[in-house]
Amino acid sequence: MKIIILFFILYLVSVTLGVLIEPVFKDFKITKQSLEYTYDIDSTYYSKWNFQSLNYELVFECKNNSTTRTCAAGMSIDIAKNLHGQVMACVSDNNGELDCNHYFYPKHYPNPIIEGDFKPSTKGGPVIFKGYYLAIGLYFYTILPNTGLAIIGNPFGDSIDATNLLLDYQGGCGTRIIQWPNGYKYSFNHSNPVIDNISIESSSFISLGHNFCNSSESIQVYLDGVQIDKSKIKSIDHEQFEIIYSQEHSKSIIVNIVSGGLESNKFKLDYKPMPLKINSVPKLKGGSITIIGERLSSQVNNSTIIVKIGQYDCKNVISSKNEILCDLESVPNVDKVKLVDLPVNISINGIFNENNLLFSFDTPIISDFILPQGEVKLVGHCFGYSQITQINIDNVLQPNITININEKETTLSFRPILQIKKSKLYIIVNGTKSNTIEIDSSFFVKSVPSSPSVNGQTVNFTLFNINPNNFNATPIMTFRDNSSIKSTDYKNSNEYSTHTYSFEIPKSCGRNEITISIGDQLTRTEVYYELPKISSCSIVSNQMIKCLGNFTNYLDLFKNGKIKIQFSNMIIIDNIPKNPIIFKSDSFSFPMKPEYISSDIYLIVCDETSPYFKVDITPSLKSVNQSLVFNSTGGKLLINGENFNENTIDNTSVYCFSNKEDYNCSFINYTSISCDIELEGPFDQLCKIKFNGKDENYNISISYYPPLVLNSTIISNSSIGGIITIFGNEFYNEIDLITVGKSKCLNSTFINSTSISCFVEPSNFNINQTKQQQQQQQQYVNITINGKSGGNNLNIYFDNSIIEVKNQSSESDKNNNNNNNSKNKINDESKTDGRSLYEKYKKYFIATIIIGSLALIIVAFKIILYFNRKNGTVVYWKYIIKEKIYKFKNRKEQKCIDDMREILNNAEKNFPDIKLDNLITYKKYEIPQEKSVEGELKEQAPPLSEYDQFPSYYLHSPKDSQPPNQIETLPKDSPPPNQNETLPEDSPPPNQIEKLTEDSLPPSNQIETLPEDSSPPPNQTEKITDNSSSQDGPSSSS
């Protein structure tokens, strides 16, 4: 026994000593391609992992260097699938010893690599978890702080894929963290919330979807981008939440939710119009449609509201949150047109109703009743006509009752033969039965007056069938706005069952429903305020429609917009500048418009219509000129009448029989129409008028003006005749005859409506006469076209004096135009064989005159120049410079003079070979004799003659002048021009330098240079040496 115990102890010691120590990582790399661990060279290391339940081994291959050992295992998707469940590790050391009994420590587990987004539903449920190394050594996850997340399936079996795990998530909200056994943490959130649908309740809406969380603390709900208060969240769950909200108008709102920090989609919620009830109208009349319902208006100004009933548009829409009013036009009596069960479709800013409200024409509907003046008045729609409508009370037809139905078929009144006490009443129209109402007419009232003034007044109401227990009660009148007034006992009778009381009716207008009660009895009646009456209407001279009547009590109502004028099937709008509607105490007026037609006119006062008055504005024709005279291209026909408008001209035209064409007319004003008839002559025409669509008994006869002769070309040789062109107006191709004096003009040719040519026969007319004789013997040129003649006295034969012909032609044109009021110009470009010498050789005559005129101007110029030389003046181009005192006004100008003097002193040196021009003489400013260029020249010149005793003028030239190019001999007394000269005997002394005003000096380029061949007078020639030129001015030499 001792031996066995000793052996067991030795075994335990050997086993203990044989277990290798745990490896220590120096570094590791975990990827989807490999697992790589780095150890110290002396450390133990993992050489293999055994997944025992799978019988799978992951072997590491190791490589060493001097200090470290790196062990790596290749990885793939197929390998990674098997890496799950419990792991046993094989540890090796440097001695090659292998120990495979090591449990794999959790801290050595590789960190998982997670692929894709892990976004479970907030409600929970199975969810896929993808990646590498997800389940090594574990069979469930921990969601911090301590929630378990189980793996669906056996993590230790081979039935699961470790790269594609299916987890059993229990749900949650917001961000959560999964922790692995090695301490690795992974943060995740849930799928985004999604709103799939929203249903509207009476005071809330319910949103359906998913991932909403289940706690109001974890969500925020937004309406049109504004977060609502959490108190408005009525309930919340993962797939549904309900919000307290109501909307009175048709509107779209945007709903979205933020759950756990994740935002949902934006859902457009339409609060759609909901029509619930509609009246009916007669199909042959149409009428006002009233739709009752919910959300029938919009909060947005200028909203677009469209109402369509079947295929028919309901126009002039007026909406409030619970009511829509519109006008449905009449429907023609056409077969196979659906008139019943028409769907009512309403669109408010593009939002359409969904409920199916149906409409039918001609369906009688009783909506209410009142008892005015002892009658029964039913209020509703489609009451038909009094001849066909029947009343049924308690299922008994009432054949002997007189029925009154208004034009719109909205009210029906009758006086019952017997008092109606809590009876059931309905009507039958064309076999269609209305709804049934309960009525009691035993207690009723009558008022005097029946229609009080709009300004308010005292009205007496008589109450009938008062119960005895109410004799001592005070009657009270209650209005729709719940305001009330008490009566005053009229004291008219001791009979209390029928008694009269006074009420002070307030200021108002239209029809006001009231309730009168006394004790426990009450009756519903109305106060129907007085309406204005139109006594007459007409169209006055300023194209205004004016109506007369007594409107004193209605001035304030008109100012407040409670009175409208209805005419020509429209409301008259005050929109014409400077021509508004005028409403006075005795009349009202408004401007005429083309679209108005003859119709009834009435006033709408607080939605009640006054009595109608018929206004006739039918266009009428008053006068037409039945005899017209046109020119060659046509003319205008003026039609006068009244009440014309644009519709009138659309139906008015002129028909002419010759070409069978209609000519349209244009609107001028309310009393005039103009018709353009483009019908060429010369034949007379017959036309007729179609006015306002009807043929009128007006035959229009159109004739044309006779030919109008204005002028012609001339003939210079009467003995042989010639071709002439006659100018004028109203010429046609149908030429009967042309005569010139007593001769015929043959071979006539129509050129255009203003020109005709023909050949004038030879004549013995003496052309060599004086102008006066020729005017006295003008030839009468006569043209006959289509039996109509016209002519004029013209000079056909004339000499070739250009000026006389031209003057005669011009004077003739002027006289003829004044006499005949012609608008056409004369065509004077005709070229025929019979033209005058002037016409044939016109350009040569003009050239001769121009050349001769130029020659005369040149001769005159030379003569003037010659005499000007003798007077001592120099002629410049466009200027004659005389001797004047030149005033220098500032130092700058004085310096300029000094500079010119210096230049003259050096002229010989600066310009030895250039002749000077543009010379100006100044008397006042004398250059000293000893400093002048002239003085230097005189020392070298031969002795002076007696004509050279007087020194020449001192000559000055501006600094920027061009050098002279000509020498000129000037007459006596003339200032020096652009050349040097020998002055005459009576030249002024040298100290008298000419002084010119500043404004008398011409530009240098405008000083005239005389021709080189002009010779000076004898004994006045000045000789200048070759070197006598200077830069700014010359010097004389003797």
Automatic annotation (TrEMBL):
Keywords per UniProt: Glycoprotein, Membrane, Signal, Transmembrane, Transmembrane helix
Domain IPT/TIG: 285-360
Pfam families cross-referenced by the UniProt entry: Ig_TgrO1, TIG
Domain TgrO1-like immunoglobulin-like: 117-190, 449-524
Entry's localization field: Membrane
KW Protein transport (keyword) present: no
A GO biological process held by the record: aggregation involved in sorocarp development
Protein name in UniProt: Transmembrane protein
